[in-house]
Sequence to fold (248 residues):
Amino acid sequence: MKRIIVGNWKMNMDLKQTATLITRLRTQITNPTAKVVVCPSFVSLVQASEIISSQKALLELGAQNINDNDEGAFTGEVSGPMLKGLVGYVIVGHSERRIVFMESNELIARKVAACIRNKLTPILCVGENTNERQEGLAKRTVLDQLEQNLSEIIPSEASKLIIAYEPVWAIGTGVNAEPYDVEEMALAIYHYLVNKYGTETADKIPLLYGGSTNGDNAASYLAINKIGGLLVGGASLNYKVFSSICQL
Ligand code: PEP
Fold:
């Protein structure tokens, strides 16, 4: 399976900066070893899509959020049908949405279902916080998130998922998870998926790692058993660093 590197731009980059960053990535990423997905803000997606097509950039697009409904009176929200055809991927369950926007596991499950219904690939983020890790509850937390967040999809849809393990304490903090801890969690997630969907399906679900990855540590995470790519936050805004990660 080809590696997947996803750049989560979060609430950064206006239209002009988006155009500059996509153009720079286009010139740097000429020989990616991975499928490369960038996730700008909603307002930049149309422009980013046009630049990617006109410059034939080796990039795909993702959104950072989705509403669980397909249409209706949901002021300020963006739905699956609006994203369909514009992006191929949607980040769902990111810890910033779980914590800052208080998204529940039930809502995240409905967002995963909205992605599948609209033929968008959900990049489902799961991860424990500092207390949960310190109390030895990391695995239980992550597997519980998966159980709840995948409750609305049927087994035949599972191969359309991407799962990103992102320990909350490593996101945007510069604190690096130890590769052996990441491997332990990756194996726990894989075995959970095997039990739930069978080996053939589990083998089709890419498992990404995210949390303060950068040009110096990306290779060590990519070398981990069962890790098939990275979800990169801060470092995805630096075109030289992000490009180098995509060509490792
Ligand atoms: C993220 O936002 O998903 C993330 C992993 O951020 P960072 O790489 O900055 O820790």
The longest helix spans residues 179-197.
